[in-house]
């Protein structure tokens, strides 16, 4: 049937950048490895809607690699969440604080991630770390469960499977609406990212949702390790918006751009400060680092406020700023307190703070200068912590009407990003495409039935099919960028109008790409995949459950799946995965099988009459090809 039915063009402007802070699904594992909500690890003056509608694609190559487009819960098909076991790594500093303000966008995002999953019918497991430092009432897991139950208006029950080192019994879901694991801070395996501990954490889990952006700079078992054992790894609503805000902060879209910097430890943040100096028009230091700048400039600073090893780093920064004509600003005066006079405040010039006095807030001149700077700036990033209350009020008040204002609370994450380092918690998540596909530009008739070749290589199979069957459209999904460019050139030069190739890792992008296609999907082929990708312990092996489920779901009834390789074990494993993960919706096609020789429903000949380059190579050397054809059953719903 397919050999009679089956039948590419690639205009250069097919791909359109997605102009929101949410992205289409993808997983560009590349052999390595953002409904509308706001704020994540950032507090922003932008409204939620404008935040998600704003441009988020960063052109800077370094930023794009460090903050890749990731798969998000908002873009994941909601129907696929039903009955799935989903583990959410939530941020305890947001949901378990002394006062939980549910009107806060920050809190509402974090709560919505959990509520959204519960409403979708997922079986929820919550995991996090906590301590009495964030809330004195956090005595044990039961007290945390009570707080979460009250906030979510759902019954949260605790389970003790981690300490007992036993896999989670699914029957326990009958005890409550949501399960809560033990305090992860009590396990050294968490910070060590122990593989066995991560496997225990994710036991029985289908989908992992990371909603703890504040931990993105750490390599933890609950944020990085578990990703290896779950077939889909997504960013929650809080995490998504946090990453969006960080990308916005990195963009050079408005000038003048000023950074307000709090905190200390200048020496370890030198690389990040150099990055800021290369992008901003001014750096205003309002924390401990300001004293290191003053000390490097030769001003008098109390020895107790001078950081070890910071002098040279501060000098280097000052020289860089001078070379780039960037203003470095520091406070001119401080309100100070003396331990012997705890109720007495006195203002001193920044360069003349007497011994025994400690700065507790910015002085009048400093606040005036800060206010003036903010009102003149078009874009502001505030990297905390800023513990001076008057400074905080001044910045918040003057910046409240500034659409380009970002207050970053998760400073540790931001500093690591500014150093040019990849954030493990982000890199562990599935990737997403940074563009949308214009099918009208891809094909002369985008309503024609679609054939998709996963791992299309140099495209000889699809190009041959496109020439042979012009009443079908053909799409090649290939991870190798050079091969994709070569295929697109061939399509263009040959004038083919019913085909296209996309550089992507189809393992996780298949659903998002094909689901937007206006026609029916009638055939999916997987030919001669790299055997290494099919090792059971390979996190990024091609034939994962998420891909099989996506293919099965999107394939039209009576549509086909063609599997082929010169390595028998590879085809057998792919067959088992398709038959197993499709849950009875796919069946072997027995017609035209050489059962005498192969005894396993192998196809004796290629049913399409068009060979791939590797297939031809194998046959030329007299070696066998192992082929299977699966069909989606029309009677299964």
Automatic annotation (TrEMBL):
It comes from the Eukaryota. Its EC number is 2.7.2.3. It catalyses: (2R)-3-phosphoglycerate + ATP = (2R)-3-phospho-glyceroyl phosphate + ADP; guanosine(46) in tRNA + S-adenosyl-L-methionine = N(7)-methylguanosine(46) in tRNA + S-adenosyl-L-homocysteine. Its cofactor is Mg(2+). InterPro entries: Phosphoglycerate_kinase, Phosphoglycerate_kinase_N, Phosphoglycerate_kinase_sf, SAM-dependent_MTases_sf, tRNA_(Gua-N-7)_MeTrfase_Trmb. It is an enzyme of class 2 (transferase). One of its GO terms (cellular component) is cytosol. The keyword ATP-binding applies. Keywords: ATP-binding, Kinase, Magnesium, Methyltransferase, Nucleotide-binding, S-adenosyl-L-methionine, Transferase, tRNA processing. GO terms for biological process: gluconeogenesis; glycolytic process. Monomer. PANTHER family: PHOSPHOGLYCERATE KINASE. Belongs to the phosphoglycerate kinase family. This is Phosphoglycerate kinase.
